[in-house]
Write a structure and sequence with these properties.
Chain lengths: 318, 330, 326
Amino acid sequence: MADAIQAAPAPQTQPTTWAGRFFDSDVWASFKRSKLTMAAAFLTLLFVAAAVLAGVVTPQDPFDPAQLELMNSRLPPIWSAEGQMPFLLGTDEQGRDILSAIFYGLRISLAVGILGVAFSATLGITLGLVAGYVGGTVDAVIMRIADVQLTFPAILIALLVDGVVKSVLGGQLDEVTTLSVLVFSIGLSFWVQYARTVRGSVMVEKNKDYIAAARLIGLPAPVIMVRHVLPNVLGPVLVIATINLALAIITEATLSFLGTGMPETMPSIGTLIRIGNNYLFSGEWWIVAFPGIALALLVLAINLLGDWLRDALNPKLR
Amino acid sequence: MTQPVLSVRDLRVEFVTRRGILKAIDGISFDIGKGEVLGVVGESGAGKSVTGSAVIGLIDPPGRIAGGEILLSGMRIDNLPPEEMRRVRGKRIGMIFQDPLTSLNPLYRVSEQLVETIRTHTNLSASAARKRAIDLLAEVGIPAPERRIDSYPHEFSGGMRQRVVIALALCAEPELIIADEPTTALDVSVQAQIIALLKKLGREHGTAIMLVTHDMGVIAETADRVAVMYAGRIAEIGPVRDVVQNPLHPYAKGLMGAIPSLESDTDRLVQIPGSMPRLSAIPPGCPFNPRCPYVFDRCRVERPEPIQHSEHRVACHLYDQSSVRSEAVA
Amino acid sequence: MFAFIIRRAFQAIGVLLAVGIISFAMFRFAGDPVNQIVSLDTPAAEREQVRRSLGLDDPVPVQFARYLSSAVRGEFGVSYQFRQPVSDLLAERMPATLELALCATLFAIGFGVLMGVYSGLKRDSFLAKVFQTVSLIGISLPTFLIGILLIYLFSVILGWLPSYGRGDTVRIGWWTTGFLTTSGLKALIMPSITLGLFQMTLIMRIVRAEMLEVLRTDYIKFARARGLTTRAIHFGHALKNTLVPVITIVGLQFGSVIAFAIITETVFQWPGMGLLFVQAVQNVDIPIMAAYLMLVALIFVVINLAVDILYTVVDPRLRTSIRQPA
């Protein structure tokens, strides 16, 4: 509460540039106040950097079988007696460097997560706009589907979509197709929240005078919706997207862990954990531990960012 | 003079906040005798309800009793350990709150709430407690109590619910009842019934009643004596007829002037200019000085102590014999 | 009250119908029912004959009606992988999943309510802060990681608990239970914790928030003014009033518990429906997927109906408002 009170006085001068406005905003102010949020942001950036720079900084390309040497398999991390350079965090049973695999795996996990969120947001926002603006039967059908889908957890939907798409496509799928299927099934699992939020906002805005005015001057309906309603829901959509990014990453990891996601030839973090889980009992704990820690930290950091964003954009909810 | 049921001596209540200590009650003293009704009036924030909460020992942190004494029939209760104070609550002091809609737990039958309270304070068996509960409901005027007792609170009307609340306060025949705005949330037609009921109960059981309200009409009708509170202090206390008809303190004058009267032929109601100071910004000297029409230099520096003036006790420099300007008011 | 439950029942049937359509679409179009009968290298002419004998030439609505009527009788076709009726496979695995889900829910309610009440009553204590932190981590950690962590701790390092399977089970009619043997009970511990942890943190947060809310209400203040004991106020008056949201969450989340059992069962190789379903997805065994979807929907709908009825038991206000609709 005290924060909200302190943040209340509006800035006296209105900076004109986007960047200027951002650094002057309450959102930025609340970011600077929270050390935990800054740590989470730093961690997230670190993960993104690792994913982007994977090809440059890692000693090995774990997706390239030619670079794997069985001689180097199951090496423990560098600080134990049998550890070997350059395998800082050890290797798995194929001689894959764990650290390199994590960096490349992050790339897959983040890509699937971000693409999945982008797909579900686009789908959800479009359906929400259509449902809210058109109303009637279209609205009823879309929202009933949303209701029914909401009763089922996303992971179940994702698994079903994944299974059905694979059945329709048939046969063995290559890595890129698998990745696309993952993005598609995750996207289909998470659209409901966006649709509900956007539809609610459309319902509120629809009856306001400026919409009537915009209509009178002859703006077509879709233009009105996109230009006038979308900016209003940007905040909530951003919050949902951030929290859903964490969920999408978990979902991808879970699907890969369950063996319906990324194959071992192009492992994501979840696949690495699935591989490592087989070596838990034979003492090679590092194969599962480091990917596990990476996944947990990544998700925690994004969740913290999402929590902060929700509070910062919505001081009343605190 | 017999021993008063409730005796409050120089009570002070503070709230510790980040911005400093707020003095919600700043040295008030009063007595209530057996069977007597003391009305406590004032604007919201004057400290009426806090006084009630302090007497029954329900000041929660960050609030605390910072000084003074509270005596119940001669026994000091403001410093009792929590468990002993709990035994006093409900048994020796009953309390009635403003809103009967929210005072009762919606998930329990009225019978359950009554029996629970009775059995907490007496050794009655479950069936004896139930019988007493029915008697209590009959006494507070609930028709067909043996049938209504097993209803849930939401099945009663507002006025009936307040009767149930009163029955709950009466469970253990307390010596003192604190009624905190008991009629404010009720319909006007029901208000009179509840007031009449309170008066009747006070008379029949000899219970002392502390009636907190901002409604001067209710006070004039019910109370034997009245205390006018302002910014955590008692501005004036005295017999209700005297205070209403002949208020001494300038604030009390303003307050009484704000009641329409059939007898007086004043053309318009007097209004007190300004508003009560926030607890964080109480002016030095007399807290009423910024709004007082009779203010003089002494009021801005020296806090007025209560002065006995005929049957009233009034905290105002105007009535201090040593004050030069006392004749200015007539 | 009765009318209310009837209305809810109709809504439930609507949901089931919608799920039925999806399930049928999967069964009929994503999978090829002919594959249930013949092997993949059967000549085309023979396949065509099987197709006709299965009635796959009939109009789609007729096929849907036939699918639904057999679904009502519990017939969901034959699994591609196992060559066995799907209903038999599911029935065989159902006890394992339901026992696991039940234990996980009990664990979540028990610990969630206890921790929630404690942190609601002593919000500034050290332990309450520990609970809050643990709950944040519990919400962030993926289920399968929690399972792996527990296995590593209690099976690999300490060797106290089995890392996979149900242990010894006892057969009672068609039901197999792990409740009656020591090894069965021991085998339940880690999967239940893994499955229930998320629900537990959720319940804890809700109970805490509700406790803080309820303790501020007038009827709690009045209960204190009546001199009731602290215990009666906290556990009689306050806790009961936090129950309604807890029931909602437990009810709404039971579907998730069943779904997350998919993951838990895979981690612990628990022989339940979830593991069957994951294997079905891996092997594109459409009949099992379609049937599982219907079954989860049915369980979900039944639970929701039960929650609606439970509400009216806990909250008398709903009873009358339902009896006399405004």
